[in-house]
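Internal tracking record. Fields below are filled automatically when a chain is submitted to the structure queue. Please do not edit lines marked as system-generated. If the sequence contains nonstandard residues, flag them in the REMARKS field before resubmitting.
Queue: standard
Priority: normal
Entity type: single polypeptide chain
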Amino acid sequence: MKPTAIVLALVATLGAGPAFAGWEFGAGRAQKIDGESTGVVTVSYLTAQPRFPWEFMVGYIDGRQRIDSGGVPDTLFAGISKRVDFDRHWYGSFGVAVNDESTDVLSGHLQFQSALGWHGERLGVSIRHLSNGSIHGRNRGETFVLVQLRF
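SYSTEM-GENERATED OUTPUT FOLLOWS
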């Protein structure tokens, strides 16, 4: 995927709509693959729908140097998902994402993303998964835990 597409996805994220529900900054760790974990950072925008907001996310996954198949470069991704708020604090989401690097971990550029999370007024925690759903190449995927700050 071209960097231009990532920039367009970021612009779409920034212009996601007139209703301001909130921004979230996330940081966390991706699961170990062949003994090596890595860092993840994200920025999300949530729309104002009361129970089913849209989440627009851009993120960065740090590369890995020592997995069995060799190094994996840094990866940028952008996605959109629909959240379902189960109650005041718990939610799940599912959507699609695109990434700029086709690697041994995220093969192909089209990915599906899912999440389960808890959020308070300003702080949240979620577990997320990016995967191609076996539509292209190897399907290892990235699973990561994020601590998110809403502002």
